[in-house]
Design a protein that fits this description.
Layout: H1 11-38, H2 43-51, H3 70-83, H4 85-104, H5 107-118, E1 123-126, E2 142-146, E3 149-160, E4 167-173, E5 183-189, E6 195-200, E7 211-221, E8 225-226, H6 232-268, E9 270-271, E10 274-275, H7 280-308, H8 314-344, H9 349-357, H10 367-387, H11 390-394
Helix pairs in contact: 1-3, 3-4, 3-6, 4-5, 4-6, 6-7, 6-8, 6-9, 7-8, 8-9, 8-10
Bound molecules: flavin-adenine dinucleotide.
Length: 397
Amino acid sequence: MTVIWQPALSKEASRWRELAHRVTQEHFAPLAAELDREQRYPWENVRRLVEHKLAGLFIPKQFGGQDTSLCATAAVVETIASGCPSTAAILCTYQLGAFPVLLAGREDQKQHYLGEMARGVATSFALSERNTGSDAAAIQTTAHREGDHWRLCGEKYWIGNGGASRYYVVFAKSDADRGARGISAFMVDKDQSGVVVDEVADKMGLRGTQTSNLRLDVTVPDSARIGEMNGALRLALQTLNVGRVLVAAQSLGLALAAYREAAQRGVERQAFGRPIIENQGIGFRLADSAVEISAARMMLYEAASAYDESRDIATLGAMAKLYASEVAHRAADCAVQVWGGLGYCKPTAAERLYRDQRVLEIYEGTSEIQRLVIARAVRQEAEECIAAGGAKARAGG
Ligand SMILES: Cc1cc2nc3c(=O)[nH]c(=O)nc-3n(C[C@H](O)[C@H](O)[C@H](O)COP(=O)(O)OP(=O)(O)OC[C@H]3O[C@@H](n4cnc5c(N)ncnc54)[C@H](O)[C@@H]3O)c2cc1C
């Protein structure tokens, strides 16, 4: 019997999930504490992701990938995150780098970059800057046309897989006067002169991932441009819509790991002559965790299914990411509390998960930005309802 709600996955998705479970148990989970302690990027895990064809899961078959559904990808990410949140986050940065190419790349760009990615050569998504994370339209990196080339100048911050990836989708202002409608995206190779991968962030959690800054004064040909000229902010947001579903999957996996840590400790730890789970203060907290994790999982697979059915996921993805990341926060907090003094100290998993969780509420749009997206949808629906005479109906007219 499982207390937590289980999605009814397709045969294909179940197969991928089982494979991910096996690889996670054998290889990723046993390394999780070491990666955190040493703040080390796990190249051996990346090789395993490639070997088991997990790195190119969402890449179409003609480019060397597996062409799986988002439901299957979410199941894999969730499973890996339950054993090693850093490795799951690395897999998600592959997706984030691939999507702009997948959505808007030319055929030759897809052949090259997606093919490389399926072989494990990653692409990163480079949008954020030190002064502009949430307000992406305000980026200051510039792209100046010089004949049939572009000169990109600026600095990108907190780039996932920075330094470990070979390629970067760099978003830059190609028309400074057009604000959000003046941004273009360019593929940049780390080995080009004028690209400096700057300091690696010393992070609170997910310490097996590598997050770096990127200093750019580099010239690229116009053929390195991805998608429509000046239309890349939309491309970034479309990419993030999918990315948010996978952050929800990371959150789910982490929440499950924290919940299991807490539940098993609740049964094993005795105080006042009985297991602490017999106290309602502990048992009810775990019950709430089980309910919330089940609900977050339903939202995650609803958003992933919507994407697989070509429905709009802007709001659903924001809801799934917002809720699942906050559920992971509460589950990790519960694990620390149930573990007591040990939960506050290394090397318990509760302590590590508590730190690993925090960024899930920050990257790919903070919780506040998700609420902003959802609030806009609420307003639009209310306005449409009023325009259609809903106000009259509400007032009983
Ligand atoms: C580990 C890590 C990995 C990352 N990976 C990548 C990556 O691969 N690529 C990439 O491009 N970026 C990446 N980022 C950057 C990340 O997406 C940004 O940090 C995030 O979007 C928040 O931006 P900011 O840090 O500038 O915060 P700010 O935008 O300055 O926000 C600060 C606070 O103000 C709040 N706030 C801002 N605007 C509003 C508003 N209108 N209403 C209410 N509250 C508001 C925010 O919610 C937040 O709480 C990563 C960050 C981290 C930490």
